[in-house]
Design a protein that fits this description.
The complex is a heterodimer of chains A (about 100) and B (about 325).
Chain A lengths: L6 E8 L6 E9 L2 H12 L7 E6 L11 H4 L24
Antiparallel strand pairs in A: 1-2, 1-3
Chain B lengths: L3 H15 L12 H20 L1 H5 L8 H26 L5 H9 L16 H22 L5 H29 L3 H20 L11 H6 L7 H19 L9 E3 L4 E3 L5 H11 L3 H14 L1 H21 L1
Antiparallel strand pairs in B: 1-2
Helix pairs in contact in B: 2-4, 4-7, 6-7, 6-8, 6-10, 7-8
The structure holds fe (ii) ion (FE2) (3 copies).
Chain lengths: ~100, ~325
C-alpha cells in the first residue's frame, strides 16, 4: 500500500505540563492510534513533549490565504485594542 | 474509606501539586478539587459576562466616537473572557447550560462589584482603572493556578486586560485635569468605586470560607488580604498622579510595614450585595435572563440547520 492512500494527521505537542499543545507537523497513518505512535517516534525522540494530540487533517477547517483582506485586515485599523495606544504620565506608565 | 487505587491516585495528584506541575483535564483529581474549581471558575466566567452590563450602559452615550469604539472593544473583550472561562470550566465535566442555570437561579455568584450602577461617564473611567485593575492583580496571581486550562485562560486574559485599565485611567486623567465639574465627577466616581473594588478580593483571610483548601491545592496562589494590599499599594500613587483626594482618609504610608495602611471595609455592605440585596442585583439577572430568552431564536436556527444538514447527508448516502 502506498503512503498516498493513508490519511494525513496533524500533530500537536505539549512541551511541558501546563503549556498549550503546539502544531509541530504532520504524518501519514492508517489509524489515529498508529498516528499517535508514529508521532511519538517522530516528534518527541528527544523528550520534546509530554503529551501529543493527532487530528486527521481533513477535519481541520482553515481560513483561506486568498481571503485575508476580508478575514484578517479589519483588525488592522483598531489600534485602540492595544495597551500602547494609551499615553499615560511616565510615573504610572507601568500600568 | 478509600480504596488502595484511590490512595495511589491521590498521592500522585498531590505530588504534581507539590512539584508545581499543572493538573490537566484527563488527570485524576479529587472530587473536592473539581468542585472547588467549578465554583471559582464559573463564578469568574459569570463575572466577565455580567460585567458587560454596567459598562454597556454607556456605549450609546459615550462622549466621542473614539470613546465609543474603545468602550465597545473593551466590552467585546469581556464577552470573550467569559467564553475562555466557560470553555475552561467545561473541561471539568459541567455543561454551559448548567452553569447558566446556576447563575440565573442565584446558585452561582459573580463579582459583587457589578451590582453597582454606573451613574456618570466618569464611572466608565473608574471601572476600567479600578475594577479591571483589581481584576488584573487577581488574574496575574491566577496565571500560576494549578489547573492547566484555568492557568492558560488567565494568561490569555491578562494580555488583553492592560488596555482595559489604561483606557480607564486615561478617562480619569482627562476628567481630573479638566474643568472643576469634570474633576468633581472623577472624584465622585472614584469614591463610589473604591470600596467595592477592595471588596472584589473577598473577605479577610480569617473569614474566607474556601481559602484554606484552595491555597493548599494551589487553585489560589495568594490570599485575599495579600492581593488586596498589593492593589492598594499600586493604586495610591496613581490617585496622587490624578491629583484627587484619597477615597479613604485612613490611607497612609507605613514605613515599618512597607505598605499603605487603610481603613476597614464595610463588610455588612459586602455581604448584603453578595447575598442579593445590592443596588442592581435584580436588574443584572433579569437582564441576563431576558437576553438569553431573546437569543432563543438563534439556538433554534442552529438546531434547524443541523437537522437540515443531517437530512441532506442521509439523502446523499
Ligand atoms: Fe475580563
Ligand atoms: Fe476578569
Ligand atoms: Fe477587563
Amino acid at each position: 500500500m502506498s503512503q498516498e492512500h493513508l490519511a494525513v494527521y496533524e500533530v500537536f505537542v505539549r512541551s511541558a505540563r501546563g503549556l498549550d499543545h503546539k502544531h509541530v507537523g504532520s504524518l501519514h497513518a492508517e489509524s489515529p492510534e498508529h498516528a499517535l505512535m508514529y508521532a511519538r517516534d517522530c516528534y518527541i525522540r528527544r523528550s520534546e513533549g509530554v503529551s501529543i494530540w493527532v487530528v486527521e487533517s481533513k477535519n481541520i477547517t482553515a481560513s483561506q490565504d486568498n481571503d485575508t483582506e476580508n478575514f484578517v485586515e479589519p483588525m488592522d485599523d483598531k489600534p485602540y485594542r492595544h495597551a500602547t495606544h494609551y499615553v499615560l504620565p511616565d510615573s504610572v506608565n507601568n500600568m | 474509606m478509600r480504596s488502595q487505587d484511590e490512595e495511589a491516585l491521590l498521592e500522585e495528584f498531590e505530588r504534581k501539586i507539590e512539584a508545581e506541575e499543572k493538573i490537566e483535564p484527563t488527570d485524576w483529581m479529587p472530587e473536592a478539587y473539581r468542585k472547588n474549581l467549578i465554583r471559582q471558575m464559573s463564578q469568574h466566567a459569570h463575572s466577565e459576562v455580567i460585567g458587560m452590563q454596567p459598562e454597556g450602559n454607556w456605549i450609546t452615550r459615550a462622549p466621542s466616537l473614539r470613546r465609543k469604539a474603545v468602550l465597545l472593544a473593551k466590552v467585546q473583550d469581556e464577552g470573550g473572557h467569559g467564553l475562555y472561562l466557560y470553555s475552561a470550566t467545561e473541561t471539568l465535566g459541567i455543561s454551559r447550560s448548567e452553569m447558566i442555570e446556576a447563575l440565573q437561579t442565584g446558585v452561582a455568584k459573580y463579582a459583587s462589584i457589578f451590582n453597582y450602577p454606573t451613574l456618570t461617564w466618569a464611572d466608565v473611567g473608574a471601572i476600567g482603572w479600578l475594577v479591571d485593575g483589581a481584576a488584573i492583580v487577581n488574574q496575574i496571581s491566577l496565571q500560576r493556578t494549578s489547573y492547566g486550562p484555568y492557568s492558560r485562560a488567565m494568561i490569555r486574559i491578562c494580555k488583553e486586560e492592560s488596555f482595559h485599565q489604561r483606557q480607564g485611567y486615561e478617562i480619569m486623567y482627562q476628567l481630573a485635569k479638566g474643568s472643576p465639574e469634570q474633576k468633581k465627577m472623577a472624584q465622585d466616581a472614584m469614591n463610589r468605586f473604591w470600596w467595592p473594588s477592595l471588596m472584589m478580593f473577598g473577605p479577610h483571610d480569617s473569614e474566607s470560607a474556601h481559602s484554606g483548601q484552595s491555597m493548599k491545592w494551589k487553585i489560589k496562589r495568594q490570599s485575599n488580604d495579600e492581593l488586596r494590599q498589593k492593589f492598594i499599594d499600586q493604586t495610591v500613587p496613581q490617585i496622587e498622579v490624578l491629583g484627587l483626594e484619597m477615597p479613604d482618609p485612613e490611607i497612609k504610608w507605613n514605613e515599618e510595614r512597607g505598605h499603605y495602611d487603610s481603613g476597614e471595609i464595610n463588610w455588612e455592605e459586602f455581604y448584603q450585595v453578595i447575598n442579593g440585596s445590592g443596588p442592581c442585583n435584580h436588574q443584572r439577572i433579569k437582564h441576563h435572563v431576558k437576553a438569553h430568552e431573546e437569543g432563543e431564536w438563534v439556538r433554534e436556527a442552529v438546531r434547524a440547520y443541523r437537522a437540515k444538514q443531517a437530512a441532506k447527508k442521509e439523502n446523499a448516502a
